[in-house]
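Lecture 7 notes: from sequence to structure.
We start with the chain below.
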Amino acid sequence: MRATKCQLKFKGDVENYLSKSHNNIELIADRLLTLFNVKTIMGQCHIRKREGVHPADILFLLIIIPLLKLKTVHSFCQYKIEDWAGCGKDTFYRFKCKAYPWRTFISKIVIKYFYLTDKNKPLRGPQEPEERYFIFDDTGLPKRGNKIQNVSFSHDHTKGRSTLGFCVLNLGLLTDAGFCPLDFAYRFGQKRHPKSPAEIIGDKRSISGQRSHEAKHMKKTELALDMLGRAIKQGHKADYALFDSWFSSPIFISKIRALYNAHAICRIKINNTYYEEPLAKLICVIQNRHSSP
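Predicted structure tokens for the same chain:
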């Protein structure tokens, strides 16, 4: 099955608009998609459409939306997107809600990224070995609508209160070339809005069912270890694992050491736990550094 070919008129209009502002955002995004062979990778991940605009062109538009300082697809569609691309807002929403294997797509993009960065490295003499870091971070994804599937209240540590939405857990790899996202997962809590519909947990044999099952039944630490194990199987390596105090428990650190022999760097939780030497001295030094002006 192949998507129906259609002439994309929006590219020229966006290019003219940005060229007047002496900006080449649209051209840069188009070159990046070509450099990473996004259309080929989408075909390998079975991200296809039977008819209409090609998924790579929809992804192109979704990439340049934040670069145009627009927050949502709705705000972008207010600028008569139908006249540019021959498609409406429903095309974007169907593309975003479709159960595509985005985890596989991201892993292939990451492999291509490291291939390009290693290939473009200049030839130099002997240097110190490169240090790499696995980074775990959880972020709240607030939502306004209570009719969204599986939306719930989750605690946002940045705001210090519960917000309606989802909790997104991200795994990234920090190298000398920069930061690169490796994997992501989301969770929803037990406390739901009174007007929210019932939870929908799909079949684990499908992509959407597997993700919803993980979001319902797995903890953040379990999701983090699962993502780390998957990254290691894909060939990613790091000397350290960085995470905040929410993950800093002896059990989680020991499981990371057992899964992959990497050192854990984290902030200790502020509680009544007593630590033995030499960890207690290290904690005192860190606390003194943070308290000093």
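Points to note: The two ends are 64 Å apart (CA to CA). The chain has twelve helices and six strands.
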